[in-house]
Amino acid sequence: MDFDWKFLVVALAKVVVLFHMVIVGAALMTLAERKVSAWMQYRIGPNRVGYFGLLQPLADGVKFIFKEEVLPAGAMPLLFRLAPAIAAIPAMVTLAVIPFSGEITELKDFLGGRSTYLSITDLDIGLLYLLSIGGLAVYGVILGGWVSNSKFSLMGGLRASAQMISYELTLILSILAVVALAGSLSLREIVAAQDGQLWFAVRQPLAFFLFVVAIFAETNRHPFDFAECESELVGGFHTEYSSMKFALFFLGEYTAMIVMSSLGTTLFLGGSSLPGVPELHWALGLVVFLLKTSGFLFLFLWVRWTLPRFRFDQLMRLGWKVMLPLALLNLLATGAVLTLW
Question: pTM, whole model, 2 decimals?
Answer without folding.
Answer: 0.90
